[in-house]
Design a protein that fits this description.
By secondary structure, this protein is α/β, with parallel strands linked by helices. It has 17 helices and 9 strands. The longest helix has 24 residues. The relative contact order is 0.14. The structure holds coproporphyrinogen I.
Length: about 350
């Protein structure tokens, strides 16, 4: 397919561009009245995720609204536990909840994994195909999955948590069990991402949202080997972005896993990240989402400062997802500031 805008793919591959691409984590969602209007007519979040035509519609809304340089498929990281045999419920305003969780060897043995589990997510692949057809090369389409540690955290804990103490307990008390579960999540994730790429995803992001809950030693033991394996098995098919929130301490190891792009949260400064990753990997991020509560002039100033600090090989994004009560006009200011920027010729 002829891409009209392939800035994101170029930066991921290390090719020169005249300005950085920009997209936002959680760009599809409640910030947009057209999303809220559609969502009101449905039974809930899952109906939207599981209906390819509607998922495609909300995936494209931010491209139409703000002219962002990429679309990210509307889905959730929790479809993987569900495909493996642990269905999730999305309670309005309370977040996800799993009626059944993983606490023992027998619980793990009952799970489905690999291609068989990935094969249950046909609605995601259909949504990617419909979206890809409708985008028709306007911007690249991003696929995604949760990183194995973050998925384990939900499967063991059963819901969101500030500490994920039950999940962390498994790492300390029953490390072999945790590794067995991480293996099964990893083989499912590899099959899932390969299917996404075959269905139209041109680049994929791994969300390790709970990376920052682990010590450096635990992160090396329980997250890195699985991220490495996913990068190794997927990189031949499409570039991989790793976003490991709070994992500033693991930047060198993350770079060694050899993703095309590393996403940064706002706690990491770009200069340190550039040094730690050896300058050979594209960086994505990292404006504090709360900065978009500032007035437009302040947003322009903060965005300009960020652009100057990253230099080239940068994909502009927030340091985490957009909050639902941020004004869409402020998002527009952010996107337009990036799109008006030009790298100085060297
Ligand atoms: O009804 C609603 O609108 C529910 C809100 C919502 C939305 C819009 C949830 C519940 N998930 C999503 C979509 C979603 N989730 C996307 C869509 C694409 C886009 O970015 O536009 C993506 C990429 C995700 C990924 C996701 N889900 C992550 C990783 C990113 C992150 O925020 O760190 C995580 C941790 C989840 C779990 C999840 N799903 C929903 C919520 C509220 C949560 C977090 C729960 C918690 O705090 O533990």
């Amino acid at each position: 397919m002829k891409m009209q805008n392939d800035l994101l793919l170029k930066v991921a591959k290390g090719e020169p561009v005249s300005r950085p691409p920009v997209w936002l984590m959680r760009q599809a969602g409640r910030v947009l009245p057209q999303y809220r209007a559609l969502r009101e007519k449905l039974s809930g979040f899952k109906e939207l995720v599981e209906t390819p035509d509607l998922a495609a519609e909300v995936t494209i809304q931010p491209v139409d609204e703000w002219g962002v340089d990429a679309a990210i498929i509307f889905s959730d990281i929790l479809v993987i536990p569900e495909a493996m045999g642990l269905p999730y419920e999305m309670a309005e305003a309370k977040g996800p909840y799993f009626p059944a969780t993983i606490r023992s060897e027998a619980d793990i043995e009952r799970l489905i994994s690999g291609e068989e589990a990935a094969g249950r997510l046909g609605y995601v692949y259909d949504a990617l195909q419909v979206t890809s057809r409708r985008l028709d090369g306007r911007v690249p389409l991003i696929g995604f999955a949760g990183a194995p540690w973050t998925i384990l955290a939900y499967m063991v804990e059963g819901k969101g948590s500030k500490t994920f103490g039950i999940a962390k307990k498994m790492l300390y008390a029953e490390p072999a069990l945790a590794h067995r579960l991480l293996e099964r999540i990893t083989e499912t994730t590899v099959a899932y991402l390969k299917n996404q790429i075959r269905s139209g995803a041109q680049i994929v992001q791994l969300f390790d949202s709970w990376a920052g809950l682990l010590s450096p030693a635990q992160y090396s033991a329980f997250s890195m080997p699985y991220l490495e394996r996913i990068c190794r098995e997927i990189s031949g098919d499409a570039p991989v972005i790793i976003f490991a929130k709070g994992a500033w301490f693991a930047l060198r190891e993350l770079a060694d896993a050899n993703p095309a792009v590393i996403g940064l949260d706002w706690n990491t400064d770009p200069e340190t990240a550039r040094t730690e990753t050896g300058g050979r990997i594209a960086l994505q991020g990292n404006l504090d989402p709360c900065a978009l509560y500032a007035d437009p002039d302040e947003i322009r100033k903060l965005t300009g400062e960020m652009l100057a600090r990253f230099g080239s090989r940068h994909i502009v994004n927030l340091g985490h997802g957009l909050y639902p009560d941020i004004s869409r006009e402020n998002v527009r200011v952010f996107v337009e500031t990036v799109k008006a920027f030009e790298y100085q010729p060297v």
